[in-house]
Specification:
By secondary structure, the protein is of the alpha/beta class. It has helices at 11-19, 35-43, 58-64; strands at residues 2-4, 27-29, 47-50, 72-74, 99-100, 113-114. The chain has a single domain (2-123), classed as TIM Barrel (Alpha-Beta Barrel). The strands form two sheets. A four-stranded parallel sheet has the order 1-2-3-4, with helices on one face. A two-stranded parallel sheet has the order 5-6. Helix 1 links the parallel strand 1 (2-4) and strand 2. The longest helix is centred in the first third of the chain and has 9 residues, at 11-19. The protein starts with a strand and ends in a 10-residue tail after the last strand.
Length: 124
């Protein structure tokens, strides 16, 4: 089961805790919580999905570093949740793809992306 968690302020963990017996496993998609929320979700044997929205701030990046590798799911959340230049995580992105404004996008050019549209290729 995919469980969407972004800026939930603790309500998410409590809701999942009350209903955890109803599903075998799950991915907490687009995780942006704090370390306490992360630990509670890991203790419930869930996977933690991260994408560009999970890596906006310095605090987000520090939390993501603590996710156990056997619980980590890397997501694109295409076409949303890209890593933008304004995100803390942008400094870690080494691979860049040419992009153009949406109204100038040419689908016959396979190596040019539409600006502000996340694509699976960007996961590198």
């Amino acid at each position: 089961m995919y469980l969407h968690s972004r800026a939930t302020g603790g309500d998410f963990v409590e809701t999942v805790r009350l209903n955890r017996h109803k599903f075998s496993t799950g991915v907490v998609h687009s995780f942006t919580g704090d370390s306490e929320e992360l630990q509670a979700l890991i203790n419930m044997d869930l996977y933690i999905g991260i994408n560009g929205c999970s890596l906006k701030t310095f605090q987000n990046c520090e939390i993501v570093k603590t996710v156990p590798l056997n619980r980590l799911m890397v997501e694109t959340d295409c076409p949303y949740c890209d890593i933008r230049n304004s995100h803390e995580s942008a400094k870690y992105v080494e691979t860049r793809f040419p992009s153009t404004k949406k109204d100038k996008y040419n689908p016959s050019s396979p190596y040019t992306l539409s600006k502000a549209r996340n694509e699976p290729v960007t996961i590198v």
